[in-house]
Amino acid sequence: MLKKGLAVLAIVAIMGMPAFAAEGDAGKTGSSSLLGLALGFGLAIAAFGGALGQSNAIGKAVDAVARQPEAGARIQGMMIIGLALIETLVIYMLLICFMWGSKV
């Protein structure tokens, strides 16, 4: 439980980095470098989380088909829908990087 709490706290802290990149007294160079850092970390975390989620989903689907081969078609369909939803989150973060990347 503690590991999950720390992981959530770390993700929230990294995702909150764009708040520190707002225009302030530091000027354009300081805030744009922090924004670029936040976008880079955000995309890396999204890609890493997506890869972990997809590998977990595929592993569980393979285990399920190995236990019940007759349900393989249903399991495969549900797995593909789940993989598409996981990948959508990564693509959303990539879109955010493209939108905010012009400000770096």
Account of the protein in words:
Helix content is 86%, strand content 0%. With 104 residues, the protein is mostly helical. The protein has one domain: F1F0 ATP synthase subunit C (F1FO ATP Synthase), CATH 1.20.20.10. The model has no long low-confidence stretch (mean pLDDT 83).
Summarize the structure.
With 104 residues, the chain is mostly helical. The chain has helices at 2-15, 17-20, 27-67, 72-101.
Structural class: mainly alpha
The percentage helix is: over 70%
What is the count of β-strands? 0
Shape: elongated
Q: Give the averaged pLDDT, no decimals.
A: 83
Unreliable spans are none
CATH topology: F1FO ATP Synthase
Q: Return the CATH class.
A: Mainly Alpha
- Please write the string of helix (H) and strand (E) elements: HHHH
Structural topology:
Elements: H1 2-15, H2 17-20, H3 27-67, H4 72-101
Helix pairs in contact: 3-4
Tag the structure with descriptive keywords.
single chain; mainly alpha; F1FO ATP Synthase; 0% strand
